[in-house]
Amino acid sequence: MSDIPHVRDLAFQYEVIETVSPLLRRVVARNPSPFTAQGTGTYIVGRGQVAVIDPGPDLAEHVDALLNGLRGETITQILITHTHLDHSPAAAAVKRATGAITYGYGPHGGEVGLSGEEGADRAFVPNVALKTGDAVTGPAWTLRAVHTPGHASNHLCFALEEERVLFSGDHVMGWSTTVVSPPDGDMTAYMNSLALLLDRDDDAYLPTHGPAIPKPQRYVRALIGHRRQRSAGILRELAKGPRKIPEIVAAQYPSLDPRLRIAAGRSVLSHLLALIDSGEVASDGIADGNATFRLKA
Fold it and tell me: Model confidence over 42-88: pLDDT tens digits?
């Protein structure tokens, strides 16, 4: 696999709003897991009249920390990168308490897939639907939407123009690669969305989980190389003969944390579906976890 320059260390305190930059603050939810790193990082943009990005899971203590920490200020906008349960459910409580307007690409677009990851928030429907290029503004700040499907079909990143940073949600994370779990997750869309970021000139990424990513274009190139090598490894495995997904996972992830085995299987499936679309792989029927895959003659 290609050498991804991961960044994993994050200095923080749970349920404490901490300053990240002149325009940005963050509070981390107490929901650590193999899929969320230290937990969900909820970002606050601006001062006085503020926007909240990814209010997080439905945890009362996290919502209280956010609302109490912003007493004297007004939350006017809530922005959602995507509708997984660690990102959007707290929007309902924050909206009830503040009357803030919610923004996102749209409701959840399909089945979340049995990834072992956080499930889907089917209750969230944004007040305002955003597409690439749409702006959400406040005093001294502008957030511009970038549609980046792949991890989820409704995934958005948000560019803070004044500080040249991109809130990358789960599309690009510094601590880990991203789970791409069909059917809502799509590897071809994910790779296209990574390529889209290479044309941008952001100074840094701020994922919802984990620390900031400096030199983001170099990091994205490494992610693209990693995924291409993963596809090549799957093709080499199939060159030995037909395989089921658990056999491919065992060969491709020899030191895998058992808690991540299901998620790895879903990512392998997403690679296989892309290889089927490109005409390199065939399966013996429905391309799911029970199918057998082979190189296409």
Answer: 999 999 999 999 999 999 999 999 999 999 999 999 999 999 999 99
Measured distance CA(78)–CA(251) in Å, rounded:
43
SS (H, E, C) 91-113: HHHHHHHHCCEEEECCCCCCCCC
Closest residue by Cα to residue 264 from 276, 280, 282, 252: 252
**Residues whose CB is less than 8 angstroms from the CB of residue 166 and which lie 6 or more positions away in sequence, other chains included:** 146, 157, 158, 159, 160, 197, 200, 202, 204, 205, 206, 216
Range 18-214 classified under CATH 3.40.50.10300: no
List the CATH code of the domain at 226-295: 1.10.10.10
Per residue in 230-287, pLDDT (tens digit) is: 999 999 999 999 999 999 999 999 888 888 888 899 999 999 999 999 999 999 876 5
Can the peptide bond before residue 183 be classed as cis, meaning omega within 30 degrees of 0?
yes
DSSP state of 120: B
The C-alpha atoms of residue 219 and residue 3 are separated, in whole angstroms, by 10
